[in-house]
User: Fold this.
Amino acid sequence: MTTTTVTHAPAAHLDFHALLRPVLTALRFTGHFLAALVSVIFLGSASEH
Assistant:
């Protein structure tokens, strides 16, 4: 009984990482996109003044 639970835990952990990896990459891309967007807006407003 204990061996099945021990072998089941790392499998669930690996699956959790497999699910998280695309989410982290998507967040990284959106983070870069938002940073570029904010910098463009900031530069645009700065050049206006």
Summary: The chain has one helix and no strands. Residues 2-48 form the longest helix (47 residues). The chain has a mean pLDDT of 80.
